[in-house]
Write a structure and sequence with these properties.
By secondary structure, the chain is an alpha/beta fold. It is built from 12 helices and 23 strands. 31% of the residues lie in helices and 25% in strands. Strands 1, 2, 3, 4, 5, 6 and 18 form a 7-stranded mixed β-sheet that branches. The chain is globular and about 65 Å long.
Length: 439
């Protein structure tokens, strides 16, 4: 049987591409060797944020003045709940497959050529091929049986001590969560600061909070050896040694380009990634790549966006990617969110002047709105509670070509965290109500 498209991989990029193509009446086949939903729904985004939500809830009550709370968590029961929640999401995707007529084949796919894919013992033909194989954790095999994201998210007991190798967003998110749940956390980062690549003005409040929690942060530090004799022993290049019950390795991810016959296509590559044009098409006409495997940033919402673009082009609707207002979120404490670019000017409003933040006993951070000399918004960097739920307002402003005054003149509900963004925008023209800026 010939399909309009065969999609290899049923993670966010793959399942979204399949559904979008099927919504336009095309016949689609999806191959998946593991679980529908991929890394994000099963082993990454969703369970990690569920863990962070749990840790934040526990910490919120413990830190609230006047509260004397004794927790007796049953993490095995929580794990059962977590997987039941994940199964609802992945089951929902499979239900949508059936509703739109997407055919799901479970098993390892092998690309024969641009029009033929083998799944198990069967061979299938397609007009278009979509590669959505995602990414896998970068491993350092000499470090032995350390934990990776799948291991730590399936924990049944909070480790007394946890050493995290890598101070990127995964290390900071999970380090914060386990620190709040009671682990003695140490984060070792090879670069000269945690969250390398993120503006220091946004990172500083998070660093302060981590240190106030008792998290030890070692920067400009390289791990040379990890051994185990009961507890793990981690040696640094300067001779320092740490002992920890568990070690988590979070030194990035790499695109999954091996083990499914990609070499048979002889595609043009961009380093380890599959090179695509702005229609998400590879160097071979009719072959597309979406999500992590097609380049950074490795974000599920970028994969969803790629899927929309690829699906439209497969269905004959010309469409091109534009990443200028791509939102980024780090689920630290407080959350860091940013989008767009810095621009020529910045307007700042402190979270400490926001009533809702104060009422939450979580007022560390700032709202930073970036704009040009004419007042048009170019981006923003927010470090504040629940900033992940606000950054889309700025992405929309950038995409729509709005001015800071447009946000400033928009009524925001009170009391909310979003008022901080509103007042930062007002600061750009000297009208913030609850803070006098130095402009």
């Amino acid at each position: 049987m010939k399909y309009d498209a065969i999609v290899i991989g049923a993670g966010p990029g793959g399942y979204a591409t399949a559904i979008r193509i099927a919504q336009k009446g095309k016949k689609v086949l999806v191959a998946e060797k593991d679980r529908v939903g991929g890394e994000c729904l099963n082993y990454g985004c969703i369970p990690s944020k569920a863990l962070i939500e749990l840790a934040n809830s526990v910490s919120y009550l413990k830190d609230m003045p006047g509260m004397k709370i004794k927790m007796d968590p049953d993490f095995e029961e929580w794990q059962k709940w977590k997987w039941s929640m994940i199964n609802k999401l992945t089951g929902g995707v499979e239900t949508l497959f059936k509703a739109y007529g997407v055919e799901l084949k479970r098993g390892s796919a092998t690309i024969i050529d641009r029009n033929h894919v083998r799944i198990g013992e069967e061979e299938f033909q397609c007009e278009n091929l979509v590669i959505a194989t995602g990414s896998v954790p970068a491993a350092i095999t000499s470090f032995g049986d350390v934990w990776y994201n799948r291991d730590i998210l399936d924990f049944k007991k909070v480790p007394e001590s946890l050493l995290i190798i890598g101070g990127g967003y995964i290390g900071i998110e999970l380090g914060t969560a386990f620190g709040k749940l009671g682990s003695k956390v140490t984060i070792v980062e090879m670069m000269d600061a945690i969250l390398p690549g993120v503006e220091r003005e946004l990172v500083t409040p998070v660093e302060r909070k981590l240190k106030s929690m008792g998290v030890e942060i070692r920067t400009s530090a390289k791990v040379t050896e990890v051994s185990r004799n009961g507890n793990y022993v981690v040696k640094l290049q300067d001779g320092t040694e740490y002992s920890a019950e568990k070690v988590l390795l979070t030194v990035g991810r790499r695109p999954n380009t091996e083990g499914f016959g990609l070499e048979n296509l002889k595609l043009e590559m961009n380093g380890r990634y599959i090179k695509t044009d702005d229609r998400k098409m590879t160097s071979i006409s009719g072959v597309y790549a979406v999500g992590d495997v097609s380049g950074e940033p490795m974000l599920a919402h970028k994969a969803y966006y790629d899927a929309d673009v690829a699906a439209d082009n497969i269905c004959g609707e010309e469409r091109h990617v534009e990443y200028k207002a791509m939102p980024f979120v780090i689920y630290s404490d407080p959350e860091i969110s940013y989008t767009g670019s810095r621009g020529e000017k910045v307007a700042v409003f402190p979270a400490a002047a926001n009533g809702r933040s104060l009422g939450m006993n979580n007022s560390i951070g700032t709202y930073r709105v970036y704009y040009d000399s004419s007042g048009y918004i170019t981006g923003a960097g927010l470090v504040a509670p629940h900033s992940s739920e606000m950054i889309s307002e700025v992405s929309l402003a950038v995409e729509a070509g709005l001015m800071a005054m447009d946000i400033g003149l928009t009524i925001h509900p009170h009391p909310t965290i979003s008022e901080g963004l509103h007042e930062a925008a007002e600061s750009s023209y000297g009208k913030a109500l609850h803070f006098k800026s130095g402009r």
